[in-house]
What we know:
- The chain contains 15 helices and 14 strands.
- The chain is of the alpha/beta class.
- The chain folds into two domains: 46-174 and 214-274, Spore Coat Polysaccharide Biosynthesis Protein SpsA, Chain A (Alpha-Beta Complex); 283-389, no CATH class.
- It is globular.
- The two termini are 37 Å apart.
- Mean pLDDT is 87; it is low at 1-38.
Amino acid sequence: MADTPKSLDDVKPKFSPILGLPIADAPVRTDSPTAPKPDDTGRPELSVIIPARDEELNLEACLASLLAQDDDFFKLGEDWELIVVDDASTDRTRAIANSLQREGMTVLEAPPLELRATQRAFTGKTQACWTGAQQARGRWLLFTDADTIHEPGDLVRALHEAKKHKVALLSYSPRQILSGIVQHALMPLVFSELASVYPPKEVNDPGKHLAAANGQFLLVDRAAYFTAGGHRAVGRSVLEDVDLAWNIKRAGARNGNRYIRLRYAPDALSTRMYRTLGEMMEGWEKNLALLFPHALMLAAWRMLDIALLLLPLLILILPYMVWWKDAILWLVWIRNLVRFYGRVRRSNFSWLDCLLSAFALPLFIYLLVRSWMNYKLFHQVTWKGREYRTGR
């Protein structure tokens, strides 16, 4: 099976569906020195690729959970391989990866990020993923983050699930490990909105144009990946997982296979996305305006939620209100309460986290507005010590 088509001109979009930016400087060609050779001889079933930048607090646990899946039935070095790509880490990330290295595991260093004019051709993560993909030999490629913990056997089960459902891309949303009351309150709000904007039923429907994926666990058929241009085609995207899914679904439409599959998978893996409040603020400021294209409108709706949730205060400060008007306000408040928590429950967080979520509405609104300003006014976002331009 060939890894790449002769030309991507007909299968890749010219512009990113998120940023509206050119997403590839040139098509990926089979004669390119960076394109893998179309040879299936001795190819393992799976390549697991971990892009890692300053992940000394997470990487060891992630690698341990993956290496533990090496057994006689799914042998590392024969049936699958593990590739860690160090993205210019300034901590012990590379040393930790080297200390755990064994047969079937490779530790690579991503090339330095380069500027083309005033815009980078890659983000750090997309370049690390693309670097790993060039070295990967597997029929399937799994991109997973260094802050994930994998359940025993999840690699074999994921391969089985992808083949059973005949998909080109399978992506899991992990169980979230939270720390601190602010995370417990805010995260259900964000994930409930994600469930509204990217409902898995529509994402998984080959007849719908909606596409989404979670870069924390993204399993993709090798041929489909390179046909769509891989991470090179979304090199400048800060929301590379969603854009890559969009490219794969679009490219698959040309050969009759638009299947991607996204689901919540606490049975497969968990993740601690953020360890500090600062990390969480920076991370959502980077992503919210891309995940929710109408960020200001969403902020306005959430402000209305605050007003409606505070209706009992209005009733208390207006003691001389006519009884039937008072009753109407209580009915409106109860209806909004049911609607609000019904929506938040779709986040798959605990009932206590969902209960706390109302108190995080002001912070969520702030992050939406701040993220919108970063993209629309400042044309720049910051992540892990790097600044990325978001304008043309």
